[in-house]
Amino acid sequence: MKWSVSILSAILAVQLLVVGLRYREMTQQQEAFAIAEQQLSTLKSEAAAVAVNEDVQQLAGKVAARNNWLLDRRNSPLARLAKLQKDCPNDVSFVSYAADLAGGKIILTAPDLNSASSWLNRHFGNHGNISVVGRESNLLVLQFIWSG
Question: Which helix (H) or strand (E) holds 110?
């Protein structure tokens, strides 16, 4: 009889331990499921927000317009002037600058034609003409006209 009480007590203790472990496992699974449901609802709301409701051709037109705007901005007269001034050789100075998106004209002074022409051709890719229009002290007055 003493044996049966101790054996039954041990079996009861093991069963209580198993039930406790299963309860803990079940609560962890419920928490993981709740987190997964929350992430799923977040992803669904993000997918709904990103969904394209526009016509694909209309969207392509908007993308092309944006790309053209970026290209025009990059080739704008102000952007060109900023690039030129940033890379301008020390002995070259601007006298005047007039430009639009299709082309323009720069008048500048430089000690020699080679340094100014190589600098301008680097920026405009040989799409312009440079000419000497006069002298000022010991400097040449150069005119550069470009298109494109």
Answer: strand 103-110
Pick the CATH number of 77-147 from 3.30.1360.100, 3.30.2000.10, 1.20.120.450, 3.40.50.2300: 3.30.1360.100
pTM: 0.50
Q: Mutual orientation of helices 113-124 and 77-86 as an angle, nearest 10°? A: 130
CA distance 19 to 63: 61
pLDDT band at residue 52 under the 50/70/90 scheme: low
Structure token pair of residue 82: 């900023």
Per the listing, tokens 């005047």 go with 96
What is the model's pLDDT at position 1?
66
Adjacent-strand bridge partners of 144: 106, 130
